[in-house]
Amino acid sequence: MARMFKQFSLVPKPLRYKLMIAFSLMSIIPMLICGYLSVNFIFPKYAQIGPISLVIFITLIITMLGFHLAKEMIEPIVQMAIDARRIAGGDLEHSIAVTREDEIGDLGKSLNVLTQRIKDNINELKNYGERTKEINIDINKKVMALSGLLQISSLISSGTDIAAIMDMLAGKVSYMEDSNPAVIMVLNEETNVLEPIALSNVKSTELAKRPVRLGHGLVGKCALELKDIVIDKDIAANSEIDDLRKTYEVKNAAVLPIIMHDKCKGVLLTGNKRDFYAYSKDDMELLKVFVKQAAIALENDALIKKAEELEVIDELTGLYNENYIKERLEEEIKRSMIYQRPCSFVILKVADLEAYCGKRGRMAGEAALKKIAKLISEGLTAVDKAARFADDEFAIVLPERNRKEGELINSEIRKKISELVVDPKAEPAYQKLKVCSAISENPIDGASANELILVAHNRLKDALKGANAS
Question: How far apart are the C-alpha atoms of 332 and 345, rounded to whole Å?
Answer without folding.
Answer: 10
